[in-house]
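To fix ideas, we close by showing one paired sequence and structure record:
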Amino acid sequence: MIEEKGRVARIGDLAIEIHACRRCPRLVEWREERAADPPRRHRGEDYWAQPLDGFGDPDARVAIVGLAPAAHGANRTGRMFTGDRSGEWLYAALHRAGFANQPHSERRGDELRLGDAYVTAVVRCAPPANKPTPAERDNCLPYLERELQLLERCRTIVALGAFAWDGALRAIAALGDELPRPRPKFGHGAETAAGRWTMLGCYHPSQQNTFTGRLTEPMFDAVLTRARELAVA
């Protein structure tokens, strides 16, 4: 029990460190500018406007990795994948798969609870046009590396999009685990062993994928069902 409390405390300490990060001047400026001048629908709301830590069950066997917070989504709410259409899709899918106690989340500190799942991202600040630079990605990667270390039971990573797939593989390699050769390519439904993890690829639940039908609910559910199967194997 003492060891378990220590690990949870270390996750909390990492979150505090992430919140204080100012390594990327462009991202700091962007996240704070978006908070200072929000669209009309969010006028009067208090924005989080800080880097985002991961969220979920410290004993999770499944980690879901995204690209970065959205300027008026998680940058506003303070919780990964909350406050925008992508988050609506993700948490609804996690609820259908039995990983979440409810199908929606409004902001940090609400009633959403995850079981056996942990949601995080490669980059922790909202980037302009949702496009972090390679340097910004590399500045953030150590946070993902440390989260994966602290999620001791995690054996499955669901990468939402090609950027998350590449970032997760980079984090795994940085932890000293050997990657398959040739380097596994991203694709929806892709599956590969990478170190102690099994990687699963899933199209990102962005509007450009969900509105066009490139990603459907059954497609999303199939990936999370496979993640559940791997978690209990």
The radius of gyration is 17 Å. The chain has one domain: 2-232.
